[in-house]
Amino acid sequence: MGSELIYRGHETQPTPDTYSPKPHKPWVSVIRPIRYMLREQRLVFVLVGIAIATLVFSLLPSSSNNHDYTPISDSHFPTESTQLTHRFFYQGHGGYGSMNLGGKVPLGLKRKGLRIVVTGGAGFVGSHLVDRLIARGDSVIVVDNFFTGRKENVMHHFGNPRFELIRHDVVEPLLLEVDQIYHLACPASPVHYKFNPTNVVGTLNMLGLAKRVGARFLLTSTSEVYGDPLQHPQVETYWGNVNPIGVRSCYDEGKRTAETLTMDYHRGAGVEVRIARIFNTYGPRMCIDDGRVVSNFVAQALRKEPLTVYGDGKQTRSFQYVSDLVEGLMRLMEGEHVGPFNLGNPGEFTMLELAQVVQETIDPNAKIEFKPNTEDDPHKRKPDITRAKDLLGWEPKVSLRKGLPLMVTDFRQRIFGDHKEDGGATASTTMSSN
Ligand SMILES: NC(=O)c1ccc[n+]([C@@H]2O[C@H](COP(=O)([O-])OP(=O)(O)OC[C@H]3O[C@@H](n4cnc5c(N)ncnc54)[C@H](O)[C@@H]3O)[C@@H](O)[C@H]2O)c1
């Protein structure tokens, strides 16, 4: 065997006087590909291809940078004077387009999309956030256990290579290589949150992930941390008035603990964090029949049922349209400031006024029915958003009268067009002014 190999090796050795029927023509190897290209207009096709590719690559990234963001001022944030190095800086005007990723992207190159996890991304707020991040050119991984979220909310991204969906409960640890974590996973309505301990354990796991991979972490906290507030409107420096043992405390205190954990990871482990305190938000893709006041009124009016007002209906809330919230969350994530920031619409409505707007929008003849109020339902809720205005350059743009019809269109389609959603029956729910 060995000798056979040696023999063949010798046979292939080139020798200067080997006979070759064709004389060696070095210029043929150059001319042949040129002739090949010139035949059947191949060259024209190649040139057109190059032109199209150049056009696409030069247009695509700029279209994802077209969002109307104002860069955040460099002004210091008195309460959260962090010594951490920020990976994101804004240079001049133009928002994301002018963002320099801390030296990761060499000057002159287009901004590279980030890898972002959105926990709870199949839910109401999360799915709208995912839409914006994908549109911006980022790669998004949604982590959701579908407790209250729906695949339908993100289905339009299936097949997009920049989108991934993982069915996972955040109370279990998870390892992913990402740049940013938007942590939304948590049942947000009174009907659901009583059954789920997501807030503390889930937040702990996601903070652990942020620490491990060096990702920036944004917590979606809530106005519920102010409890039944003794200060009105609520400023971020107000510490709240929360019943620690009431039926709502798993949510209220859960979010307060989540804020504490977030700040501890920031101070103790150097994790870059952001905290948003979200006030009542409404819009398309909200869970129908989940006990939140706007979705309940809209669903009831569409089904020709009386609108249920709990208590005397004089308790107030502010209602923010979902696109305003998503804009605020993204500005907070990309900005320099830890927070907490109130993100809400300061327009204040009593429950009866809200019912009236729903009547005007859907059915002027809709009746109102009064029922006893739920335990610990806050009397007043209105955000002071001065801090978000000053430091994030953010304020809500969509009024209730403009936003409500957009939500009604979606609810109408889901209630009457998709019978799988509600089975044609009204679920009996505990309603609150949330
Ligand atoms: N919508 C509001 O008015 C409002 C107000 C204040 C705070 N928030 C906060 O914003 C976030 C999003 O709220 P939303 O209104 O979109 O609620 P949602 O219920 O529509 O979305 C929550 C999502 O989290 C998922 N989820 C729940 N538990 C999970 C778990 N253990 N593991 C993985 N996924 C889980 C759900 O399936 C759902 O997709 C929540 O953290 C909520 O507390 C919302």
UniProtKB/TrEMBL annotation:
It is a single-pass type II membrane protein. Residues 1-22 are annotated as: Disordered. The keyword Transmembrane helix applies. Its cofactor is NAD(+). The chain crosses the membrane at residues 42-60. GO terms for cellular component: Golgi cisterna membrane. Residues 118-405 form the NAD(P)-binding domain. Keywords: Decarboxylase, Golgi apparatus, Lyase, Membrane, NAD, Transmembrane, Transmembrane helix. PANTHER family: UDP-GLUCURONATE DECARBOXYLASE (PTHR43078:SF48), UDP-GLUCURONIC ACID DECARBOXYLASE-RELATED (PTHR43078). This is UDP-glucuronate decarboxylase.
